[in-house]
Structure formats: C-alpha cells, structure tokens
Amino acid sequence: MEVIIKAENLVKVYRSEGDEVVALKGVNLELTAGEFSLLMGASGSGKSTLLHILGTLDRPTEGRVLYRGRDLFALPEGELAKFRNRKVGFVFQFHYLINELTLLENVMAPLLVGGFPRDEAAVRAEEVLKRVGLGHRLSHRPFEVSGGEKQRTAVARALVTEPEVVLADEPTGNLDSQTARSVVELMRELNRELGTTFLIATHNSELESFADKVYFIKDGVIL
C-alpha cells in the first residue's frame, strides 16, 4: 500500500516560563492510502499534539512529516496553507460550526477559502451533506439540529474539499454512545466508499472493531 503521510522521529516540547513539557518523544508512524486507523490513548498522552503536527496545524520541535515523500515543514507557509486546505480534512471534538450560518454555508466555507466560485461551492456542499444524510437540513442552523447532526456536518465539512486524509480528534467525545457509534460508522462507510484515509484519535476502546489498524500512544510514545 502507498504511504501517504509518514512521521519520522517527531519530538514536541512545549516551553513556558522556564518549564518544559515533552508531549511527543520520537514518534514514528505511517498512514497508507485508504487506511482507517485509530490513535488510542488516555487524555494527555499526546494524541492531539500528534494529529495537529500531522495536519501541519503545529510544527514539531524535531523530526519530519513527509507527504508522499515531500517534507511538509520545508515548504513555504503559502504552500503549507494550500496543503491544509486541499489535502487534509479535520474533525474535532467540538464541531466549531458557525451558528449564524446554515449547515450548507458552514460546509461551503473551506471551498470559499480555497477560491471556489460560490455556486460551485454550494453544489459540492449540498452533495456531501446529502451523502452524510443531511440533505433535509441544508437551511438549518447549528443550534436547530442535534449533536449527532452537528458532528455529521463537521464530517461533511472535512470531506467537501475531497481530501486524501481526514484527521479526527476525539470526534465522538461529546456524544452519547449510540450517536458516537453512528458517527464512526458513517466515517467508516465514507472511507470504504471514497477511499479517503482516516486517522481517528480516541480513548474509546469500543471503536477498535472498526479499524484496519490501531496505534496506541502513552506519554508521547507509540507503543
């Protein structure tokens, strides 16, 4: 299988007022095309830090992240921003939807940021919302829908740019167990249907049955 993203010896140190916290301690990891993987660990184990670095939302103190063999952090900031917008989708524990916008407009947002014409962005956003079962909620605002529907909208927003990789950080952390399972089932279905690579950070061991591969992280080290 083709390796899409490869982490090499990632170290992340946070420094504040003379104190040091080592969040990652030489992490190595490979994501292959079409893989549906979990990154499991307790709170504070380094899951979020690793996902943020893999998606270039943060920079490592040491080490490299390669995308199809290309060193991402050697790119100019403008190229890095394009990579984040076009190649990677993000889903977070908190959906971060904008209450003043409809679900359709929330999902359109990454396309508009990427320079798509508004009409084309609307068509693509509607298609992906229908794909996640929200075609009947296009004109609703986030405060008018359920928690599960908010998170499905967040998944749609992550997928609307047709990224190769989706990184999800505790995407079911605020959901009840039944809704959480339905959201993960949706992501697994989309993974199989679209071939999108998923890496989901979670502490929920019940989700292991969905995964092709499970990485365990503890105290900043992949076990």
TrEMBL record:
SUPFAM superfamilies xrefs: P-loop containing nucleoside triphosphate hydrolases
Signal peptide range in chain numbering: none
A GO molecular function held by the record: transmembrane transporter activity
Keywords: ATP-binding, Nucleotide-binding, Transport
GO cellular component: membrane protein complex; plasma membrane
Pfam families linked to this entry: ABC_tran
Segments forming domain ABC transporter: 5-223
Record keyword Transferase present: no
PANTHER family: IMPORT ATP-BINDING PROTEIN, LIPOPROTEIN-RELEASING SYSTEM ATP-BINDING PROTEIN LOLD
Family: Belongs to the ABC transporter superfamily. Macrolide exporter (TC 3.A.1.122) family.
Protein name: ABC transporter related protein
Protein source organism: Thermovibrio ammonificans (strain DSM 15698 / JCM 12110 / HB-1)
